């Protein structure tokens, strides 16, 4: 089934902020948060909400935890091995096969190294059947997107899959569990999550130990990866114990987007590499600043994976970058948000901002500006991450990309060079699902 776990516990991607976390969060009588797994395959999710676990989006990007499998030797409790080759990771959403009509069979397996499946708050056997999925198989079996991702792993042995649990509107469900030792242990016996800074470190330690213990029992010689999707907003990462966390993590997926949007008073770039001193309102945040701050605190550049959007943020009735606006337009998937595959908008011209290091489109007649990456800016970002010695790229999310020469995933993969080739994990002899246990034999 899925060879890894990802827990998104802050408002994610299309929300502009990391999380203002409560100073204290405790479970009330009879309240619990629990994920039951077969190895690293989620089989049941039970959520009982604690009323003290309130959160408010306030700043930049979210934080994510990931566990995955590769064929390198198991890590110690304090040091993890660096990957060989660049990461090319891509989110696939469990609603994308409906709303955006993007199916798991369309994932570009030859251009990616990791698939992050978002989000798990549903039955793990899937709700959609594909050709080859039977309604009459004997026993309990996994179908839908989960089965298709397993088959992708069989076909593309270098592709590792990550299961994103929670995230976005599910985030508050995770807040209480990290505050107590019992809660952390209960959850990390099979999964991972996050909360305030010190609890977060303790949680990572518990999860690292749980992953190593699982490998010792069921996957001798394999190392299960633990990563987080970390904020690029200084007001968020400056409160995190980066140094203590780094020894437990295999990679930091830096959420280098949503730097600007409908929550701002002026238009701006949403994923620029650099600031523009001549137009600070257009570059409120920058990837360069975040990378430099992480490295200054001892995070190896090779463990930082640059996140990029496969969507654009729109501003209407504006005169240009750093200017006031009125409205954001209908968008492709939500107000003000257009999938990259739908851009540029009719009548708009694409431009590249050399100073800021990103692209955008502008329709002067209609006064509409959309901030997004195109093939040119993706290639420039590939050059940037190679020059800075970063670990690769990750995209939100698969349904937004174009095919052929317009694909940003392909542009990044080609620009980075050799991709990580560590094999995924397929053996789940203890799974409750018959077709997973037998390795999808015959499929």
Automatic annotation (TrEMBL):
One annotated GO molecular function: endochitinase activity
Transmembrane segments: none
Signal peptide: 1-20
Protein keywords: Hydrolase, Signal
Enzyme Commission number(s) from the entry: 3.2.1.14
Enzyme class: hydrolase
Keyword Zinc-finger: no
Record-annotated GH18 domain positions: 86-419
Any single GO BP term: carbohydrate metabolic process
GO cellular component: extracellular region
Family stated for the protein in its record: Belongs to the glycosyl hydrolase 18 family. Chitinase class V subfamily.
Name of this protein: chitinase
């Amino acid at each position: 089934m899925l060879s890894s776990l990802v827990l998104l516990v802050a408002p994610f991607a299309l929300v502009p902020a990391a999380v203002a976390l409560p100073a204290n969060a405790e479970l009330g009588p009879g309240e619990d948060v629990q994920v039951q797994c077969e190895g690293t395959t989620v089989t049941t999710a039970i959520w009982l909400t604690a009323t003290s676990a309130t959160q408010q989006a306030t700043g930049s990007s979210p934080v994510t935890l990931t566990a995955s499998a590769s064929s390198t030797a198991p890590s110690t409790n304090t040091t993890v091995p660096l990957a060989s080759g660049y990461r090319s990771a891509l989110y696939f959403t469990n609603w994308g096969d409906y709303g955006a009509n993007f199916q798991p069979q369309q994932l570009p397996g030859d251009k990616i190294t990791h698939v992050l499946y978002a989000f798990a708050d549903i039955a793990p056997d899937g709700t959609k059947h594909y050709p080859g999925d039977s309604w009459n198989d004997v026993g309990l079996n996994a179908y839908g997107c989960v089965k298709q991702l397993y088959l992708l792993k069989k076909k593309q042995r270098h592709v590792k899959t990550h299961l994103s649990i929670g995230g976005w509107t599910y985030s508050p469900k995770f807040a209480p569990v990290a505050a107590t030792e019992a809660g952390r242990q209960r959850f990390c016996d099979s999964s991972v999550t996050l909360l305030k800074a010190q609890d977060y470190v303790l949680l990572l330690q518990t999860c690292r130990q749980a992953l190593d213990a699982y490998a010792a029992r069921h996957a001798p010689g394999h190392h299960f990866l633990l990563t987080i999707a970390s904020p690029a907003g200084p007001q968020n990462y400056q409160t995190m114990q980066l140094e203590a966390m780094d020894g437990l993590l295999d990679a930091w997926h830096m959420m280098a987007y949503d730097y600007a949007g409908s929550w701002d008073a002026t238009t701006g770039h949403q994923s620029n590499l650099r600031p523009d001193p001549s137009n600070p309102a257009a570059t409120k945040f920058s990837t360069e600043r975040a990378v430099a701050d992480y490295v200054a605190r001892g995070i190896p550049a090779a463990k930082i994976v640059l996140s990029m959007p496969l969507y654009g943020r729109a501003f209407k009735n504006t005169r240009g970058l750093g200017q006031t606006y009125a409205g954001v337009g209908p968008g492709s998937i939500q107000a003000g948000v257009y999938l990259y595959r739908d851009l540029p908008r009719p009548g708009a011209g694409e431009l590249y901002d050399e100073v800021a290091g990103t692209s955008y489109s502008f329709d002067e007649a209609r006064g509409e500006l959309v901030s997004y990456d195109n093939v040119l800016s993706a290639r420039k970002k590939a050059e940037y991450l190679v020059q800075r010695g970063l670990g690769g790229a990750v995209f939100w999310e698969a349904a937004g990309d174009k095919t052929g020469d317009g694909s940003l995933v392909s542009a990044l993969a080609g620009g980075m060079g050799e991709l990580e080739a560590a094999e995924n994990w397929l053996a789940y002899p203890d799974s409750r699902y018959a077709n997973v246990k037998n390795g999808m034999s015959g499929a």
